[in-house]
Amino acid sequence: MDSLVKVHGGGGYDSDFSDDDRQGESSESGLKRKREEEILQKPFQKGRHSQKAHRSLHANEVDREEARNRRAHLISLNAFERHKKFVGDYILYYGGQMADFKRSGTKDKTDGDVLRENHRFLWRDEDEEDMTWEKELAKKYYDKLFKEYCIADLSRYKENKFGFRWRTENEVVSGKGQFQCGNKRCEKVEGQKSWEVNFAYVEHGEKKNALVKLRLCPECSFKLNYHHKRKEVKAKTKRVSEENQEPPQKKKKKRKRSSSHSKRHKHKRHRDRSASSSSSEEMRDSDKGSGWMDGQAGDSEAGDEPEGQSEADHWRGPAPTVEEKSREEEFDEYFEDMFL
């Protein structure tokens, strides 16, 4: 090149361009590079930061990341743990004691407490009018009890005070109160007696009565009858319906009437037979050819008479109806002795 000259005392070359020419060339190359980047830049692509980010931008990004982490942590907690965290933060920032935030358990109630408050020995239609969830729970428990026999508490029998309750399913299966003694502290099986007691009690400030049955052993029966004798329930030997029962005097009268009526009827038949025999003899005297036929006809008429029951008995009244017992009545008769 013509513009290059040899430097004295060295083997290199140096250009004769000035500093202004060099700056112009760099600026042109920079502009060219920017144009190329603008052409190649996509519409959704963000521009590059040629300078450092501001401090406020950094702080906003940090706060946003911290809030995201805190929200994820709160979502992972349940309601009670979240409540404890908020209470702890409140005490940390505003001061105070943890005892001030402790919940009072004086008004807490279990299902047993609700049943004791709303239980009834006998539910009536009036009690089911204004039903709350507590009463519905007590009514549901009451429907599961078996009300054939009672379980008794005879610990205060000398004070003439007794406690009765209905049997549960497990007690019915084990035979407690029916095949075993009905006293809750006694398990004897022999010598069971059935008693009927008028149970007077106070429930929700109201006096009530209920007629209950229970089975007790001889010792517990003595405790039950310590002050006065209770009514003992005994098994019935025969069960006769009231419709079929008739007083003995009426039966005797009917028998007398039927016997006298049958005697009169027999006497009347005897007279008819004698009259028919005399008429047949007269006919034999007059006409011997036809007499044997009349006598044979008279014998056949006498033989047609019923031997057992007379005709008047048929017209005395309607035929006696035999009542057929239903299956439930047969089961009641079968289990009658068992439930006494």
From TrEMBL:
<dbReference type="InterPro" id="IPR050645">
    <property type="entry name" value="Histidine_acid_phosphatase"/>
</dbReference>
<feature type="compositionally biased region" description="Acidic residues">
    <location>
        <begin position="301"/>
        <end position="310"/>
    </location>
</feature>
<feature type="compositionally biased region" description="Basic and acidic residues">
    <location>
        <begin position="20"/>
        <end position="40"/>
    </location>
</feature>
<dbReference type="InterPro" id="IPR019129">
    <property type="entry name" value="Folate-sensitive_fs_Fra10Ac1"/>
</dbReference>
<feature type="compositionally biased region" description="Acidic residues">
    <location>
        <begin position="329"/>
        <end position="340"/>
    </location>
</feature>
<feature type="region of interest" description="Disordered">
    <location>
        <begin position="1"/>
        <end position="65"/>
    </location>
</feature>
<feature type="region of interest" description="Disordered">
    <location>
        <begin position="231"/>
        <end position="340"/>
    </location>
</feature>
<dbReference type="Pfam" id="PF09725">
    <property type="entry name" value="Fra10Ac1"/>
</dbReference>
<feature type="compositionally biased region" description="Basic residues">
    <location>
        <begin position="45"/>
        <end position="57"/>
    </location>
</feature>
<protein>
    <submittedName>
        <fullName>FRA10A associated CGG repeat 1</fullName>
    </submittedName>
</protein>
<feature type="compositionally biased region" description="Basic and acidic residues">
    <location>
        <begin position="311"/>
        <end position="328"/>
    </location>
</feature>
<dbReference type="GO" id="GO:0016791">
    <property type="term" value="F:phosphatase activity"/>
</dbReference>
<feature type="compositionally biased region" description="Basic residues">
    <location>
        <begin position="250"/>
        <end position="272"/>
    </location>
</feature>
